[in-house]
Amino acid sequence: MFSYRHAFHAGNHADVLKHTTLVALCKYLCGKDAALSVIDTHAGAGLYRLDGDYTETSGEATDGVFRLFQVPIDAVAHNIRAQTAPKKGAVKAIFPEDFCPALQDYAQLLHGLNPKFLETGDTAHLKIYPGSPFIIQKFLEGRDKLKLFELHPTDFKSLSANIAQLGAGRQVTVACEDGFEALKPFLPPPSRRAMVFCDPSYEMKSDYARVSVMVGDAIKRFATGTYVVWYPVIPRPEAHDLPRKLKTLAVKAGRPWLNAVMTVKSSKLTTDDSGEVVRPGLPASGMFIINPPHTLKAQLQLALPQMVVLLGQDRNAGFALDSGG
Ligand code: SAM
Fold first, then answer.
1. Which of 55, 87, 209, 255 stands 20 to 30 A from 48 (CA)?
2. 261 CA distance to ligand 1 centroid (A)?
3. CB 55 within 8 A of CB 8
4. 69-114 pLDDT, tens digit each
């Protein structure tokens, strides 16, 4: 069985990019006149403790969500390659009150789950972190529906318990199934409005190919759905090819697409004082969206430079935002 557990990574820089984008998507797509079907193919546990054993062991949230709310004194000195950031020495410190709208919405979500954090502004009180199921559920309205798939038995159990406490009834369903396959019968949805959120662990090399096969099949079934894929940017051919394959699928189907990449640090191996090789951890990740709302690009154009200034760890930090169609 898999060893990946999202609890070790909750609130890291990839989650900040992923979930800020997800909030913007949900805010736009949910609660319209026609019902929206949201399918989260790789749901995780739904809710995470940032002061729990897993998260504290990995410390990844320290360089992610915690950093977002700390004024980046050192960011001022960095020569950050953000496309719209001013030249060296002129990078303005960003306080949470200066956040762009997408980051404000993301912060509001965290404040809602952590009232004492909202009251004090002290990140010591930022203890609960929402995964994609909780984020999406927060925005559902009326006839919107959410279907969650999670294959890891332990995370499935946590997810089921976490969702049960929301009392969302039949609006949210949870299944311990392979999300790549489980998606098929739901497309096209009866209301002809759907968003598919696909966030695999990529623990198995085959996940990369399965993502593009799943998206290719989904577009054939339902060309106007919004397809959202998170992917790691790592020196591995499959990872490199995935956004290119997704772009080809979108272009062939004549659908618009958006690709947002955020880099926080160099991908090079380094050595520590004792000469041991230190792996950098995940340096960058991306969000590829087919049929994005027309508002998303402008929102990410504002959010990405702020995220880079706040989360960038060295002079390799930067972002790219491409679109087409
Ligand atoms: N989407 C979640 C979020 O944003 O909070 C995080 C998901 S995590 C990156 C990936 C999850 O997919 C893990 O919990 C893993 O157990 C699960 N998983 C792996 N393969 C799967 C599959 N084929 N179908 C469904 N879930 C799978």
1. 209
2. 20
3. yes
4. 986 555 444 444 343 444 444 455 677 888 999 999 999 999 999 9
